[in-house]
Every structure is written in structure tokens, then in C-alpha cells.
Specification:
The complex is a heterodimer of chains A (568) and B (319). Chain A has 21 helices and 12 strands. Chain A is α/β, with parallel strands linked by helices and 568 residues long. Chain A has a 6-stranded mixed β-sheet with strand order 2-1-3-11-6-12. In chain A, strands 8-9-7-10 form a 4-stranded mixed β-sheet. Chain A has a two-stranded antiparallel sheet with strand order 4-5. In chain A, α9 crosses α12, α11 packs across α19 and α18 packs antiparallel against α19. In chain A, 40% of the residues are buried. The model of chain A has no long low-confidence stretch (mean pLDDT 91). Chain B is elongated and about 125 Å long. Classes of the chains: A alpha/beta (568), B mainly alpha (319). At the A-B interface, α5, α19, α20 and α21 of A face α2, α4, α6, α8 and α12 of B.
Chain lengths: 568, 319
Amino acid sequence: MKKFYQLFKSNLPYLVICGAFIWACLVIATRHAQKTEPGIIVIRIGHWQLEGGVRDGINSLAREYEKLNPNVRILQEAIPESIWKQWVSTQLMGGTAPDLLEIGNMESNLVTAFYLRYFIPLTNYVGRPNPYNKGTSLEGVPLINTFKDGMRRSYVEENQEYMNIPLSMVGVRLFYNKDLLKKLTGRSEPPTNYREFLKLCEKIQQQKHPSGKPYIAIASSGWHFSRWDGALFRPITYPVIRSIDFNKDGRFSKEEMFYGVVTGRISLDNPYYLAYFDMIQEVSAFFPNGYTGLTRDEAIFPFAQQRVVFIPAGVYEIVGLQQQAAGVFEVGISKFPQVDENDPVYGKIFEGEPYENQEGGFPVGITRTSRHPEIAADFLLFLVSQKGNEALNRHFGWIPIIEGAGATPEIALFQPNLEGVFPAFDATLGGETTIKWQQLISLYQVNQITKEDLIKDFDAFYRTKGREDFDELIRNRYRGIQRDEQIARGLMIRAMALEDKPEALGFWIKYRTMINGRIMGLDSQNRRLIKAVEAGQQEGQVDLSEYSAQAVARIKEANAKGPNNQKP
Amino acid sequence: MNPKNLRISVFRAITPIPSIPVRFNTLLWVLLVSLSLISCVGKDAVHSSQILIDTGWKNYQLGDFDLAVENFQEANRLSNDLDIKAEALFGEASCWNYRRQNRNTDKARELYAEILRLTPLHPLIPWIELAKVRIQHFGKIEPKLDYASLADSYADVYKRYPNHLAGQEAFVNQYNVLLYDVSDDKQIARTAIPILQDFLTNHPETPFLHSVSSQLASCYAALNKDQERVFWMLRALEKRELDTTNPNADNSTNYWNIAYTAEFEVGDFKLAREYYLRLITAYPRDQRIFEAKTALRRMDEVEILVRAGRDPSTRKEGR
């Protein structure tokens, strides 16, 4: 026995190695057997969404799909976000990527390179109706028109093709601890009026936690601040756009803000920007001390520990927050509070609630190495059918991206506001101004400097170093033009290769759109902008939203004839 | 049969010309086999070159410029056909011209010159001439150029190829360069109008109707001729080639521009209302819907003010 033990002991490392080897072989063999089950087609889907509900949702829809297609098996591979980039790169380069792959969570240039090299264009599907919409209100409707976001983010300019299909929509709202809110304020839901909300926060912070420390009204971090910034603070600056819309396209750009400041059309202490700075201080007074140094996860802890009432969060965080609160407290969801025209301070400048862009999330593409791309596409169409997408997003707890797909009442609160104002403030023109702005705004957020100091310090910097950033921004635009020239040449060659075939016209149109619209149009605009910035304020220049003398004369003439003769 | 006689019989049976001596027949055989081999190899070379060129363009589109250059160079090396060589050289030149890393526009120019030398009548020549001017325009990250010289270079391409797409594109580019800020230069607007109108008369089917119409609208705006300006804006919209497969290419900004111009600069509220409404109806998710609806209310207010004998500027800003 002793001899046997000695023998065993001396050979233990070899036995372990052999055991591991045999185990690995068995795993591979079983997996191989699973893949190669006779007559069965296996479709793999890879993603990084580890949030509760996502895997269940995909599994549930996969089983339904398998019932309709008994020869298909859907397997999913949920990969942690932290190793997603490395995993995807290895899988794609090694030719072992799943058939369906979520796309993103890496640098945009890498995403583009992967699209071009490893994914199949889905353009052929977007114009055709989704067969799984038969019998619904979307029967016969082209796939692209069934998406709430019009599949705008699925289109890749570099190859002028649709490369992914999004499964959900994203949005941000204010989450709150219902029980704690009731206990501290007697209310079951928060007010949506800005002033009332501030009063409520004050009331919350006047009360003390059993530990003796005061309650905090709003959980926050540098990351959470940006949620408030986009949803409440910045949109108040909207009216500035009418003074700086240099290209008169009705949209804001940061170079237009620079143009506005250096030409004297606006100053950084205009009433709208002042209101913006004031709102930051008013709301952040209810954030925890030193919140700018906290990470996103650190901000969530006190919410889970019932020391904080409110936290802004994305739709994809609903299930996670609910799981943390399960059995302890109930999580409520509300829209962000908003200013209105009766506000004693901001009422005069308030124009409307913020516009919320509808953006697709969870974009999925089909890899070139897929052995059954048509089955993969069919499963994808199943997931974005009206019924499929509704069921999928019910599991996810997210917003369906397909028109008419129903959502739970709490998700209905995430429906975006499509008629509203948008920010007309962005001081981050380039590297220098971004660093300076972040330094100053951080100091301002924690009351280290006043609003006046913030404006004074930044204004001086913006006018001098900002010019360097502006020049670099223009140079970057020309780099973009060089990229577009490269794409345009590819389009021209594709058009030429098709000779007289009808499809050639489509490529010629794309080519001309690229050359005339994007390249030459941007070149002219850059030159005009540089000229305007260099010239400064020109004499006699009227506000961009004022009626010209000619216009006034014509309006008077037309209205002299009587009312309503100008209606179309 | 004697084996020697058998060999001779077989050889005679397959000799091309039995009347001439065997050794000449042997030579003839060698020649025939060689010729057929050469012809096969020649065919393969053309075929391979074409495949290599196609592969080169595929690699170009994937951004694999080093591979694409190799493909084009190999295609050029394998082929003696001048057209194929020109295509291969054009592909290689495009790689050097449009790649972002290791871009070499001098090399591209050299290759373009070689094509011109080899096949001066090749169908790609107008595009090559245009590409050379575009190197002058966008070859370097330099927003300030000698724009007069650049416009002349574009003009030269149009002058040489007025009926070719490349020539017409050069014409449009020439006037984009010249009219970038036409509002500051009435004289250039006066000069440009008849030339642009001539272009439209001479090329009624040109795909550049939209661009030239827009340029005419800018010229008339500079001269404060509102009726003509609006006419050409509308004409530009009508003639716009819309890439219906691109979700980011739509008419929303055109509608916005017409509405905005009609409201603030021309004072044509009927037209302004029509195009604000078109924007609202056709693009209900557009970011500018709020402002378009604000504009509709604003115009109603302005009309009330004007009818009351007051000036529109007394109206409250924006809202």
C-alpha cells in the first residue's frame, strides 16, 4: 500500500496533467458532438449584455424559434464586457466567431474595420417586409420602416451598407426608492416640476439616516452628472442656436459656438448659459460630497443601501437595480423634473422640454464565417418582428425598437420626447479646451470657484487656445474629407464595374452625393467659417433669426391685402 | 510488324505534313506545342490580371491597401494588354492617392502620368485628370489654398471633357470653389449666372442639375433677387438625386433651408409654411420639429403684428 502511495505521489503531477488533458478532450468532444448533431443547424449568438433578463430573453425567444424550426439550435455566448474586445478580435480573426455578434464596445475605427472585413451586409433585407410580421399591423411594411429609429445607426458610410440590426432602444430616466421617498416626504412619486423637485430634495436632506448622517437626495458620480447635464441642464441653452446657427441648418455644432463667441454674437455670460451654470449648482447641491470623484458603481451602493432616494439610470439598469432592491424596497421610475414657463427664475427663457433622440441599442450583425447566414438572418428577423421584439424586450426590461411592439407601463415612461429643445452649449472644441473646461467645471461643481470665475477664466482661454483647437478641428474635418474621397473612389469603381446595369445608377448617385454633398459642401462651409472667425463681427450683420429688411417689406405688402392670404 | 516500322508508321500518322522530312515535322510539332502553350499562358495572363484587378479593388474597399497595391502591381506585370495595364496602374495610383496611412500623392501622380503616356485615349483619362486636380484640392490638410489656380485647374478639365461625367463634375467643383462665399462678391455672382445657365442649357440631362441649380440660387441671393433665388432653390430640390438606401441622406435639411430662407430672408410666409409643414409631416422624428412648429406660431404672430401696424421686430424672440 505504501509502495502504491509512493508511486501515486511521485506521479501525481503527470496524473493531473493527464486528467486535465482527458477532461479537455471530453469537453471539446462533447461540444463538437453538440455542434455536429446530425441534421441540426447550430446558430451561435455572442454578446456582452450580462444584465439580468437578457440571457433569459434570448433563450426564451430561441426556444420559440426552435419550435418553428426543429432543425435549428440557437446557442448564446454572453461574454463579460471587460474582455469583450479581446474576445471578439480573437474570434473574428481566428474565423471562429459566432454566427450572430453584438457589435460595439470598442473604438469606432476598429468597429468599422471589423464591419468591412468580418460581417455580411444586410442591405438586401432592409427593403423587404419582415416575414414574421405577417398578421400584424406591420405586415408588408419594409423592414427599415418597422424600426423606431429608421435603422440610422445600422448604416455604415464606409461601405454604404446596412451592417447590423438593433434589438432594443436605450433611454435614461430618474429611478427612485419608493419606500424611502414615502417615508421621508409622504409622497409616493416625485414631482416633475423643477422647483417642487428642489424643495423635495431639500426636505430629504434635512432628515437623518439611522446612522445619524443626513440622507442624500440624489446619488451621483462624474458619470451620473452627465445624465443630468443632458436631460435637464444643457437644454436650457437652446435659444442660443438662433444667434449662432452659422450654416442655417437648424442644428447646433461646437464650432458654431466658438464662432458665436469670437465674433461677439454671443458671450459666455448670456442669460441662457448663466441659467445653465445656475442649474448645475442648484441640483448638484443635493449630490453626495465629492461626487465628481466617484465611479458609477460607487454611486449605486448608497442607493442599494437606502441612504439615497434618487439615481439617474439607463433602461438597461432597471432589472439590475430591481434585483438589488428585491425584498427590501420598491424601485420607482420617473421622468426628470423640468422647468416650465411659470418658473420664477427660468420661466422667461424656458422654451420647451428636451428633445430625446431615438437610438437603437444592442446592434447585432452576421459574421462572414457563419455557415448558415440565411438562418442567422432569419432568427434575427424573428427577434425584430413586432411580437418577437415585444417578448424579447419584456424579458430584457428594455424598450422595444419595433413600431407597435408593446412595452410594460414602466417602460412606457422611457418613450422619447420627439418634439423638444436641444443643447446649444459645448465648450469642448478640442484637446486644450476640453481639459480646461473639465478642470474648471469640476471646480465649479464642487463650489471651489464661482460662476463668475468660471466664465472669466474659460472665456480668456477659449478665445486664445480655443483658436488652436478650432484650427485642429477644421484640419480634422479635412482628414474626414480625405476618408470620404477614398470611399467615393470605391463607389465610382463599383458603379463602373456594373457598366450599363440598372444597379450602376445607385452607386453613381452615392458617389455624387459623397462628392457634391459631403466633400465639396463641407469644404465650402469650412472656408466660410474660417473666414468668419478670422474677420470677427461684421458691421451691419443682423441676428441670424431676424427678418431681413426685404422680408419685412414683403410681409407688410402681403398682409396689406388682408388676413390669411399667406396660408399654403 | 517490326517495332521500328511500327514507330515510323505511328509517327507518320501524326505528322502535320507527311511530305516533308521527319526532322522538320518534329520542329513543326515543337513550334505548334509552344505556340499553343504561349497562347494559353497569354489568355491566363489576361484572365489573371483581370482577377487580380478585381481582387485589388476588393482589398481597396476593405482598406487593405498594401495587398491591393500588390494585386495591381502583379496585374500590371502579368499583362501586356495596354488597357489592362492602365486599369492596374489606375488601381495602384488610387491606393497611393486615397490611403490615409503612408499616403503618397507623388507616387499617384507618377502612375497617372504613366497611364497617360501608355494609353492617352483610355476611358479612364478624364477621371485621371480630375483626380490630379483633386490632389491639388485635398492632397494636403491645408484649408487655405491658391483657390484661383485650383478653379482654373477644374475649368481646364471641363474644357477638355465637357461631355464627360468627370468634366461636368469638374465644372461643378470649379464653381463650388469660386462661389463658396458669393454673398461677399456680387461681381462674381453676376459673372457666374450666365455661365451656369449655359451649362444647364448645354447639358439638360446632366446629373449635376441639383448642384448647378443650388449655385444659381446662391448667386441670386447675393444679388438680392428673391424670386429667382427661390425658383432655383426649388429647382435644386426637384432635381436632387436622393440616395434612397442611405438613411442619413434625406430632404429634411433642404426643406428646412427653403422654409428658413422663405421666412427670414424673403418674407414669403406661404412658402415658408409649406416647407415647415413638409418637414413636420415627412420627418416627424427630426430634431428640428420643435423649431418648425415654433416658426409656424411665430409667423402667425408676426402677421397679427404687421396687420396691427407694428414692426415684426417688436415680437418676443423665438417663442
